[in-house]
Amino acid sequence: MPAKTLVKIADHELTLSNLDKVFYPATGFTKGQMIDYYIRVAPVLLPHLAGRPVTLKRYPDGADDDFFYQKECPSHRPEWVPTAPVWSEGNNRNINFCLLADTPALVWAANLAALELHTSLSLAVAVATPTMMVFDLDPGPPATIIDCARVALWIKDIFDRYGLTSLPKTSGSKGLQVYVPLNTPTDYDHTKAFARALAQLLEKQHPDRVVSRMTKALRAGKVLVDWSQNDEHKTTVCVYSLRARPTPTVSTPVTWDEVTAAWEKRDAAALTFEAGDVLDRVGQLGDLFAPVLTLKQKLPSL
């Protein structure tokens, strides 16, 4: 029988299992340490989960083993874990996504081996209205996160010219992501078209460095500016989520000064953060990604 531990968080009791199981073999990072990380980072993570449909990316046997995506919130969830129905055209029915509103719900999800948390760009109450726009920068080998830093700075320059704030974070995997807070009435037709046009502009300006098309044959040595994530049916890894990499890296908010310094020094390590690093950064810097939740901005017309 797997080892089980009963814990009480807030007013809820949870039964946690296999806390000693190694989830990151390269470092010995265990499931218990994974859950502990999520408890400690909860004060800054939960505002970014609040009210958003969450897709759980579950790794029952750890980060280097098989995984599956879970959109439908498990039927065996505690009654205090709410759900949000979102219509799926492909399934011709509502999918009831989990809403992780508090620390007990977050710990419950982590205990399901949900190493990664992927969130909608919309709130569940208005799934057709994105509150932000995202550019997912994915390097095609031999390009690296440093090449992504260069492209991210080009994106920043474009939005600076519009007088709009953009915020970078690491994906926690291979690349970077640039978010543009909106929090004003808009729709995905506008944000997706805008993101695509910007990606195509960058590809035209820097054809040797940037690609806007998904075709793998075009991506070697270039950075894909993935605009397609701006879709109400897609989710993107949430800020502060762990990633299933060889070590427990995290999707981490960074400053533009850090991105610039990494690019100038060609220092990929400066844009790689593990769970402990992130907790230290939060203690020193607070939530660098907080403006995404409240800053009101409007995209110009195309």
TrEMBL record:
Keywords of this entry: Ligase
Enzyme Commission number(s): 6.5.1.1
Superkingdom in the source lineage: Bacteria
GO MF assignments: DNA ligase (ATP) activity
Residue intervals passing through the bilayer: none
Domain DNA ligase D polymerase per the UniProt entry, residue ranges: 30-289
Entry-linked Pfam families: LigD_Prim-Pol
InterPro entries: LigD_pol_dom, MtLigD_Pol-like, NHEJ_LigD
NCBIfam families registered for this protein in UniProt: ligD_pol (TIGR02778)
Protein name: Non-homologous end-joining DNA ligase
Organism of provenance: Anaeroselena agilis
Gene field: ligD
